[in-house]
Design goal:
heterodimer; A: 313 residues; alpha/beta; six-stranded parallel sheet; two-stranded antiparallel sheet; globular; B: 573 residues; alpha+beta; Thrombin, subunit H; six-stranded antiparallel barrel; 17% strand
């Protein structure tokens, strides 16, 4: 019987069981009318969710606001949530190489132009791409803040206190959660579906943590792994010629949308994560729908992703 | 013996959630023994909660026994007496219910001005008395009968008296509207009553105001939907209904009551525009709720299918985005949203499955079991495109020990395809005895095979293949299992039932239904309407699976792949 482990992406999330149900419902639903819903439970596929939002966020989201495209695109709802912008003062304390890498990543994500509320976007480079996403700038800015903070705190193993009385070494804590969940799985037919920052975490564990168990297949969705600065932070284990994790025994499928800003508008990662110099990742360019192209529930509704998943299970 | 009421309520709730009727009954029997044996104080609020839990799962007979024990041992309140009367109504003891209600009304009448509880229950009791008369009218179903006319008039008076004395009692008001409308249609003189349209408009106005002030409860939405039926505003009725079904408090019990009200009192049918719009959505929402069951006439199913494309287009035009907030920044609640539309599409997929479901009997007057149509290759490649009938060996068999219908005697009718067309079998291709896989795979006579081919093609019947996978057990969210069949060998009607999946040990699938067990030979589906099994038995004392000790109440189906596997091994064509 196959098992799928999910790992979520950037930003705060609803509680783990609710989040898992949102993912399962998204896969099972017929959002686009293609009659291709995949009801994993009905197919005998067991599932689990690696949940790490509580390592970086104080309380879980009460609602599933950021998992549904319709909600996410509803600017009045987001506007009411102005208090949810993450504190970015940690950037001021960075020095040396760490600062250089994060500044470079921020530039790649157009973060520094986005923080300016009065900013009028120019018509060149990735900023132009960002402009093509029909979301208000303040929402795009918030998304990029989450990404920058989550990536940094994880990859630099920052000591972080999400709530009173609790302090985590972010990477240590999340890695141990990943390993615990992966080790619970007994079947050999084990597929991991990761989204966004979850793809970075999963890659990190599979490639850089010796104790991490092997999985049969990996699906990365809306991944920032194609961004040079992210790859730099995964060195020395990552190399372009041999970046494919040996612990993925079978297939790695990467799904991206050209207008997903979290992918850095470059989701074709096959050349960056080769296996013995060969490009082996099955890269799928999926034209996602909605204004926020990074949305996981939209990705999970798409036909190419579903067809690829059926092959994996 | 002592009973900790909080623990008791938790245990009862958990048993009722998985439709463990035997477990719930045993618990309540213990409680009844305790109530009679002990003189300890029993918290009356907890007694009320227990009765409410039983009511919600429609266990009225048990509810009646518990309430009886409470009242007889002095653990009583106005609310408990009201719940007792409700259990009497729902078990058909209308005379007894009337007596209890009259006494309750009389007792509360005297003190209601100084006692808030008495006031609440007085109003409720008057409404329930109206329900008794309403039920009498529906049961007799003859408007020319003097008793019948008296019943509907008494019912209207009960409801109207409460509503006119205080127009915030909308439940009473809307029932008066429904009954005045019904009386008018049935030719009963309603000249002494107010105009039901004006009443409906007034009720709708109050609910609109409550909604704007975020004070409307889920039952207000159902009431508003009924008011819109009275005012012949189908689109609005649909929006309120959809909002009602979306609310978490609205469960299968609530939706089932609404469906009965729509069908029995408003007489909505698929032959009317408003019924066409509302009934499929209501049935769909009901079936999707935990423990939902829908019984539908074969003809209504055909009508529903015939209207599907126009209904789909109609619904699409009415869909609004439920996430868009209103002018106050609140989510829209009264709206026909994409979620309701998806539920409808899911239900119609299930309704499509009915077309291939057959009633099996020896004559057209009574069914003996259920069967379903498949392409032969769905079970065994060697059978190719031939249409075959799948049922239990204890339904059709040539072996006298099975006490089944002989294949030569069996009469097959597909109610949702053509209820006048009768089909005969020529032979059993393969079977496995009732003590093994309890399956009979039957061949139609040559002439009827051709007739069936033509009929299924004309009606565009989608025959379901045997699904390869079994659902997961013991991992939330719990999996649902659906059965379609002819309950109690009934004719004309098909029942869809939602079941909770209990356990699987190949070839057996165990599930539990909130209502009566499924019909022998019914197809068993997963929650996506994929065929996974053949229903064959139900027992209050079924041995558990996977080496677990003990017996439990369960239905048992046989995995369709087990049938396929064994048949392929044994069959010689």
């Amino acid at each position: 019987m196959p098992h799928i482990t999910f790992i979520h992406g950037i930003a705060n999330k609803p509680p783990a069981d609710k989040l898992k149900k949102i993912w399962l419902d998204a896969l099972a639903s017929d959002q686009l009318g293609n009659e291709d819903g995949i009801d994993l439970g009905a197919r005998g596929v067991t599932t689990s969710m690696i949940y790490w939002a509580d390592v970086l966020y104080e309380n879980s989201e009460n609602a599933d606001v950021f998992e549904h495209a319709t909600d996410l695109e509803s600017t009045p709802i987001l506007a009411q949530r102005a208090d949810k912008d993450p504190d970015m003062s940690w950037r001021e304390k960075l020095t040396g190489e760490e600062k250089e890498v994060i500044d470079s990543l921020a530039a790649k994500l157009s973060f520094d132009v986005l923080v300016d509320d009065t900013f009028t976007p120019p018509t060149s480079g990735s900023t132009r791409n960002l402009e093509r996403i029909p979301l208000p700038w303040f929402i795009k800015r918030r998304m990029m803040k989450w990404l920058l903070k989550d990536v940094h705190h994880y990859l630099y193993n920052v000591e972080f206190s999400p709530r009173q009385g609790i302090t985590y070494k972010v990477q240590d804590e999340i890695r141990s959660r990943v390993l615990a969940k992966l080790n619970e799985v007994e079947t050999d037919k084990h597929v991991v579906i990761s989204h966004s920052m979850g793809t970075v975490i999963m890659y990190d564990c599979l490639k850089r943590v010796n104790a991490c168990p092997s999985i049969e297949s990996l699906m990365t969705v809306g991944s920032p792994l194609g961004i040079d600065e992210v790859q730099d932070m995964l060195q020395p284990e990552w190399t372009r010629g041999n970046g494919f994790p040996e612990k993925v025994e079978n297939t790695w499928v990467n799904i991206f949308d050209m207008l997903d800003p979290v992918t850095g508008f470059d989701g074709n990662i096959a050349n960056d994560f080769r296996k013995n110099e060969k490009e082996v990742i099955d890269v799928i360019n999926e034209q996602n729908f909605g204004a926020w192209r990074h949305n996981i529930t939209n990705y999970l509704s798409e036909p190419k992703l579903r067809a690829a998943l059926l092959k994996l299970i | 013996m002592e009973i900790d009421t909080q623990t008791f309520i938790r245990n009862l709730d958990s048993k009722l959630k998985i439709f463990d009727k035997a477990g719930a009954t045993a618990l309540c029997q213990e409680l009844i023994v305790f109530l009679f044996a002990s003189s300890e104080v029993f918290p009356l609020n907890d007694a009320r909660k227990i009765l409410q839990l039983l009511r919600r799962k429609r266990m009225f007979a048990l509810m009646s026994k518990v309430a009886d024990a409470c009242i007889n041992t002095g653990r009583t309140s106005y609310a408990i007496r009201k719940l007792y009367s409700q259990s009497l109504i729902d078990t058909g003891h209308l005379v007894a219910a009337k007596a209890v209600l009259h006494e309750l009304i009389s007792d509360t009448e005297q003190v209601r001005l100084n006692d808030k509880d008495a006031l609440v229950e007085n109003i409720e009791a008057k409404g329930l008395l109206g329900r008794v008369y309403k039920q009498l009218y529906v049961t007799v179903g003859n408007s020319n009968n003097t008793h019948s006319i008296k019943s509907i008039k008494d019912a209207i008076t009960c409801y109207l008296d409460v509503y006119t004395s205080d127009n915030t009692h909308l439940w009473h008001g809307i029932n008066a509207v429904a009954l005045i409308n019904r009386a008018k249609i049935d030719g009963v003189d309603v000249s002494g009553y107010p105009d039901h349209h004006s009443l409906a408009e007034a009720i709708l106005l109050v609910i609109e105001e409550k909604r704007l002030e975020q004070q409307a409860f889920y039952w207000d939405f159902a009431t508003a939907s009924e008011a819109c039926i009275a005012l012949n505003r189908p689109g609005d009725a649909l929006e309120w209904l959809s909002g009602y079904a979306r609310m978490p408090e609205c469960d299968a019990f609530e939706l089932g009551s609404t469906l009965r009200q729509f069908e029995e009192i408003w007489q909505l049918g698929m032959n009317k525009e408003i019924g066409n719009l509302l009934l499929p959505i209501l049935r769909a929402e009901l079936l999707q709720k935990e423990g939902g069951a829908v019984i539908i006439d074969g003809e209504a199913l055909m009508q529903q299918k015939k209207n599907e494309s126009s209904a789909t287009e109609g619904y699409k035009k009415l869909i609004k985005d439920t996430s868009i907030p209103d002018e106050n920044g609140k989510r829209l609640e009264k709206v026909f949203g994409d979620d309701s539309f998806k539920t409808y599409k899911w239900y119609m997929k299930g309704a499509d499955r009915c077309a291939a479901v057959a009633r099996i009997g020896i004559d057209s007057a009574k069914g003996f079991g259920t069967g379903f149509l498949m392409r032969g290759r769905g079970l065994c490649d060697a059978l190719g495109e031939e249409l075959i009938l799948v049922t239990n060996a204890h339904v059709i068999s040539g072996d006298p020990q099975e006490k089944a219908i002989h294949p030569n005697e069996a009469l097959i009718i597909f109610e949702a395809l053509d209820r006048d067309a009768e089909f005969r079998l020529s032979e059993i291709i393969w079977s496995s005895s009732s003590s093994d896989l309890d399956a009979a795979i039957c061949r139609f006579s040559k002439e009827d095979q051709a007739k069936l081919e033509k009929l299924t093609e004309e009606k565009k019947v989608k025959l379901f293949p045997a699904f390869e996978h079994l659902p997961i057990v013991d991992e939330p969210p719990s999996q649902r299992i659906y059965l379609i069949g002819h309950p109690n060998g009934g004719t004309l009607q098909l029942s869809f039932q939602d079941n909770v999946l209990l356990d699987i040990e190949i070839p057996f699938i165990h599930y539990r239904t909130p209502t009566e067990g499924g019909s022998s030979g019914s197809p068993v589906f997963n929650q996506q309407w994929d065929l996974i099994g053949l229903h064959h038995a139900g027992d209050e004392k079924m041995p558990r699976l996977n080496g677990k000790q003990g017996l439990y109440e369960a239905n048992e189906g046989i995995w369709i792949q087990s049938v396929r596997q064994k048949m392929c091994q044994q069959i010689t064509i």
